[in-house]
Design a protein that fits this description.
Shape: globular
Structural class: alpha/beta
Number of strands: 8
Distance between the termini: 17 Å
Largest sheet: 8 strands, parallel, barrel
Strand order of the largest sheet: 1-2-3-4-5-6-7-8
Low-confidence stretches: none
Mean pLDDT: 96
Oligomer: single chain
Bound molecules: 2-phosphoglycolic acid
């Protein structure tokens, strides 16, 4: 993309990690963000039981809190699920949707993911929609085809740069210490950018995050790649120092 890039977003995905004592991480990151010189928006997505206390831990400073999943419905007989409306009611502003761990562990399809994104929009939340190929798909040369198919069918019509963020996460790079090459990241992000620009009026401004083993020592290179507008960070978001190291790599 040429021209002005959207402001970077660094999103932390705590996955099924985090107890009350770990809110200290959010306090530390919020304190640092309050100094006002960090060049990124910050969202931390703890497990749902921590959303309200996490919000308190931000002290109303600029760090925002998100969730990791939602049900497509607003309420009803769905034991164990949580709706986008409930997440919004707890004070969160974003939801990670269609993460590869949910696609794999819970059989989530593109159609279901699209319904969840619609639910986020209905509740006034930002949907962070995850796409990405498995190792087998990459080895078969299918990366772009898989990612574009997921994008076409899991990002609904009402998506725009204010309510939607895309996270490209190669499944084989998540939690593995492996990172796609800068060339491969640039190629896939360019394809995603083109698809978004073709489909949405403000598609050039929809943020595209990279995710999968982003750490302080590789963040600068990854975040410097064209069309990479931030990162979705798992393991390294659990330690304030590591997460801040990644945020500081935004220029
Ligand atoms: P990781 O996870 O940074 O631990 O690889 C990223 C993610 O799954 O969002």
């Amino acid at each position: 993309m040429s021209g002005r890039q959207p402001r970077p977003l660094i999103a932390g995905n705590w996955k099924m990690n985090g107890l009350m004592k770990d809110l200290q991480v959010i306090e530390t990151v919020s304190d640092r963000a309050a100094e006002g010189d960090l060049l990124a928006d910050i969202i931390i997505c703890p497990p749902a039981h921590l959303i309200a206390p996490a919000l308190a831990a931000t002290g109303g400073r600029s760090v925002r809190i998100g969730a990791q999943d939602c049900h497509p419905g607003a309420s009803g007989a769905h034991t164990g699920d949580i709706s986008a409306e409930m997440i919004a009611d707890a004070g969160a502003t974003a939801v990670i949707v269609g993460h590869s761990e949910r696609r794999a562990d819970h059989g989530e399809t593109d159609v279901l993911v699209a319904q969840k994104v619609d639910a986020c929009h209905r509740a006034g939340l930002i949907a962070i929609v995850c796409v990405g190929e498995t190792a087998g798909q990459r080895n078969a040369g299918l990366t772009e085809a898989v990612v574009l198919r997921q994008l076409a069918s899991s990002v609904p019509k009402a998506s725009n740069a204010s309510n939607t963020v895309i996270a490209y996460e190669p499944v084989w790079a998540i939690g593995s210490g492996l990172v796609a090459t800068p060339e491969a990241i640039a190629r896939t992000h360019a394809a995603v950018r083109q698809a978004l620009a073709d489909r949405f009026a403000d598609g050039s401004n929809i943020r595209i995050l990279y995710g999968g083993s982003v750490k302080p020592d590789n963040a600068s290179e990854i975040l410097g790649i064209e069309n990479v507008n931030g990162a979705l960070v798992g393991g390294a978001s659990l330690k304030a120092e590591d997460f801040l190291g990644i945020i500081s790599a935004c220029r």
